[in-house]
Design a protein that fits this description.
alpha/beta; 25% strand; 8 helices; 251 residues; globular; 6-stranded mixed beta sheet; Rossmann fold
């Protein structure tokens, strides 16, 4: 069992199967009287082939942690590697390229481009990586079909409901088959049935032996999809739950 405070002397054999390894990660915002400490020494391992959920009260640091893991935010102190890559050791260009190739991110605010239709939004990661627009859009249409939006690929974000926009964002995160998918409240705008359909899809696509999925959620309906759950409070991981169904019962 991996606890909330893993040993600092992990052997190469133990770390080789990790997708994410965080040790004593800290992060703060502001300074002086306005200083807010978001992460207070996070220790966390996510294994390859694992779906890890992060749960806890609003403001406890969940979104900050996944932003540090995905290389969107810099940590202040500590160590954090993703598939043995440490973003702090990379140039900004190398970090952007690696993140674009290896990480899919589902933002809570969706972050869809309003001037692009659904298929074009989903195709963006492929086009950034050099694929032709036509080929990227064809693949995007297939992904949209997987999330139940095959008939809405021409629709623009303002023509879609919140739940439909969320599914477009999820399809975009999966389109380039990243090694790590990071999701911030991916089912918050979805009904129970659609949320479970999306979770089954995410688990099937993302959880191959050399991949991983990290989900921030308040949605107890999807806890059962997790392999393990990290409970957070006040910027710390306070407990690792190996039986997500047990946590569901507590909630």
């Amino acid at each position: 069992m991996i606890t909330a405070s893993p040993s600092r002397s992990d052997s190469p054999a133990e770390t080789s199967a990790l997708a994410i390894r965080c040790r004593n990660v800290t992060k703060h915002y502001g300074s002086g009287d306005a200083k807010v400490i978001a992460l207070r020494g996070i220790d966390l391992d996510v294994r390859q082939g694992e779906l890890m959920m992060l749960v806890g009260p609003s403001g406890c640091g969940k979104t900050t942690l996944i932003s540090v893991i995905a290389g969107i935010l810099d940590r202040d102190e500590g160590e954090c590697s993703v598939f043995d890559q440490d973003f702090s050791a990379m140039s900004q260009r190398a970090r952007t390229l690696w993140r674009g190739q290896k990480i899919g991110f589902v933002f809570q605010a969706f972050n869809l481009i309003p001037t692009l239709n659904a298929a074009e939004n989903v195709a963006v990661p492929l086009m950034i990586l050099g694929e032709s627009r036509a080929a990227a859009v064809r693949k995007a249409q297939d992904r949209l079909a997987q999330v139940g939006l095959e008939s809405r690929w021409r629709s623009y974000p303002n023509q879609l409901s919140g739940g439909q926009q969320q599914r477009v964002a999820i399809a975009r995160a999966m389109i380039h088959e990243p090694k790590l998918i990071v999701c911030d409240e991916p089912t918050s705008a979805l009904d129970h049935e659609t949320g479970h359909v999306i979770m089954r899809l995410l688990k099937t696509v993302a959880l191959q032996p050399d991949r991983a999925l990290v989900i921030v959620t308040h949605d107890a309906r999807i806890f059962g999809f997790a392999d393990r759950i990290a409970k957070m409070d006040d910027g710390r991981v306070v407990k690792i739950v190996d039986d997500p169904n047990h946590l569901h019962a507590e909630e």
